Amino acid sequence: MDIALHGIEKSFGKLQALKPIDLHINNGDFVCLLGPSGCGKTTLLRIIGGLENADEGRIQFSDRLIFDQAKKINVQPQKRKIGMVFQDFALWPHMTVFENVAYGLRAQGRKAEVKDKVSEALANVQLGEHAKRYPHQLSGGQQQRVAIARAIANDPEIILMDEPLSALDATLRDEMRILLQSLVKKLGMTAIYVTHDQHEAMTMADQIVVMNDGNIMQQGSPEDVYREPENETVARFVGKGAVLEGMHRQADGIDYLQLNHQTRLPLPQKEHVDFADGTMLTVVIRPEQINLTKAPAETLLAGTVKTVSFLGEKYEVSFTVDGSDELLFANAKERMAPGDQVYFNIDTKSIHIIEKDGMNYVETA
């Protein structure tokens, strides 16, 4: 089911939680609302689900008008054909797994379907043998699966999820992430998933909607949001890397980012757009775009290691550029130590440039 939001606004007293929001989600897409705490993502999810009412705007599910403030239309949550999963599992402790999943069906008067629908939902989350157990007899991951089964038992066309995995440990989060992805695709639902965890968003989503301060900053595929952030806010929030500010300078036909009076970094050769000398730029440099070594060479820039993190298949190294306090991040195959002198160059063809007014000029390769 397609979802279209037009001019959605919401305030709580003097706090404007959502500024005019326009958003379109395609049928069958898995969409992550990503942003820091307080950015408005949960409020937006609750408005789509009918748990909050917007102050202005309208919402359509395909050709069905769900909410229109001007026309005083507001379809109740139970009639929106949605399922909801939250961080709090919200299971009835005195009910069995079967009864918890059946609760919504019974409330809708679908008693004749209960046995088949509950059995199907539990099978989809791999809990078919746990129907007679009580929530306290289940692990955290199993309890979350019950909550998911309850959400899908009513055959929703849309499933809304508000940080459903944040209470689980890392291993369970990975297992549940895979389960949710496959389940949403198998059942053909449109999914909206709220998270502040960029790893979850990058690995799960077809589309990421980055939010900040009640606004949508960017919507796009994980690849586009990572490689071509449209503004500095997105660049700093999504993905590891350095976001450097400096002045565009040119010498001997080569473009540079002047960080200070003695430090400059080479920039990509621009084929279509020229920056005026002195233009203030923001440059996004990801770890994979830096080649780092301990071996000195005249063609390499120098830096000093600040921190080293072992990630199994690689080391993540942060280091400062000599003559500057700017911190860069790179991946290395060999262990380094804080204080080590290192040498590096940057794959200038793939770094991303944002002019200070927010316009993008260089596409990521």
UniProtKB/TrEMBL annotation:
Keywords: ATP-binding, Nucleotide-binding, Transport
Substrates-to-products reaction catalysed: a quaternary ammonium(out) + ATP + H2O = a quaternary ammonium(in) + ADP + phosphate + H(+)
Gene Ontology molecular functions: ABC-type quaternary ammonium compound transporting activity; ATP binding; ATP hydrolysis activity
InterPro entries membership: AAA+_ATPase (IPR003593), ABC_transporter-like_ATP-bd (IPR003439), ABC_transporter-like_CS (IPR017871), ABC_transpr_MalK/UgpC-like (IPR047641), Mo/tungstate-bd_C_term_dom (IPR008995), NA-bd_OB-fold (IPR012340), P-loop_NTPase (IPR027417), Transp-assoc_OB_typ2 (IPR013611)
Self-association and partners: The complex is composed of two ATP-binding proteins (OpuCA), two transmembrane proteins (OpuCB and OpuCD) and a solute-binding protein (OpuCC).
PANTHER family listed in its UniProt record: GLUCOSE IMPORT ATP-BINDING PROTEIN GLCV, MALTODEXTRIN IMPORT ATP-BINDING PROTEIN MSMX
Protein's name according to its UniProt entry: Carnitine transport ATP-binding protein OpuCA
Organism: Salisediminibacterium halotolerans
